[in-house]
Specification:
By secondary structure, this protein is α/β, with parallel strands linked by helices. It has 2 domains: about 110 residues, Rossmann fold, CATH 3.40.50.1860; about 110 residues, Rossmann fold, CATH 3.40.50.1860. It is built from 10 helices and 7 strands. Strands 5-4-6-7 form a 4-stranded parallel beta sheet, sandwiched between helices. A 3-stranded parallel beta sheet has the order 2-1-3, sandwiched between helices. Helix 2 runs antiparallel to helix 3, helix 3 crosses helix 4 and helix 5 packs across helix 10.
């Protein structure tokens, strides 16, 4: 019997994509119309942002743990969070977690290593791009990475929080992302991490000049494998 997946949601668009991926692709593993049991809990993004913007990662962890406790009560066997930024609180989460977790960055780094990528462009919120989540996991795999320049990071962050978290896709924003990816392709990057769970909504694999590492779907597929192994 498959394990029950608990999704600790942060921004709802990314969480919805994660949930959809698990359900849509579950039938490939389990048979027609089948997928593991899935429960999702979501404290408001605003609650998270209060702590993220002040750099209070223990506060972020407390919110994640609150969701984790609720998901345990529903019967979840393990937890995932389709939000890269809040993984900066992961060390605090692990000290008190009621259930085991899969780490989104570790799953992405493993996928990059499997595909023999050697130099990655990391895109995400400014907190993610400037934080330790991907440096930590990529260094363990011996993979180099680049992040955009400060002005570019600010624009990416604005698009994420003013548009993508609301499901708004603008052509100018799409052109900006695709142009940025091509710029770093010419700087020697051989793949791009879509390290915000909403970026896959605007950067499609067939439109990108670099292979994409879609963190949302990579985590969802890892959860499926773990639930059904």
């Amino acid at each position: 019997m498959a394990k029950h997946i608990g999704i600790v949601a942060c921004s709802y668009e990314g969480a919805a994509l994660c949930y959809q991926t698990i359900c849509r692709e579950g039938s490939v593993i389990m048979g027609e119309h089948s997928h593991p049991d899935v429960s999702l809990h979501n404290h408001p993004l605003g609650d998270y942002m209060e702590f993220i913007e002040s750099g209070n990662w223990e506060g972020v962890a407390d919110i994640m743990l609150s969701s984790g406790e609720k998901l345990k009560a529903t019967g979840a066997d393990f937890l995932i969070s389709p939000d890269n930024t809040i993984h900066q609180a992961f060390s605090f989460v692990l000290k008190k977690t009621p259930l085991p977790w899969l780490h989104i960055g570790e799953e992405v780094a493993q996928e990059a290593a499997k595909n023999k990528f050697r130099k990655l462009l990391v895109l995400g919120t400014k907190f993610l791009m400037e934080g330790p989540v991907y440096p930590d996991v990529l260094s363990k795999q011996g993979i180099e990475y680049l992040i955009p320049e400060k002005e570019q990071r600010e624009k990416i962050n604005e698009i994420i929080f003013k548009e993508l978290v609301y499901g708004i896709i603008k052509n100018d924003s799409k052109k900006f992302f695709l142009g940025l990816i091509n710029e770093y392709r010419m700087e020697g990057c051989d793949a791009v991490i879509l390290g915000c769970t909403e970026i896959p909504l605007i950067v499609l694999p067939e439109e990108s000049s670099l292979p994409v590492l879609d963190s949302t779907r990579i985590l969802s597929r890892a959860a499926l494998r773990f639930a059904t192994k």
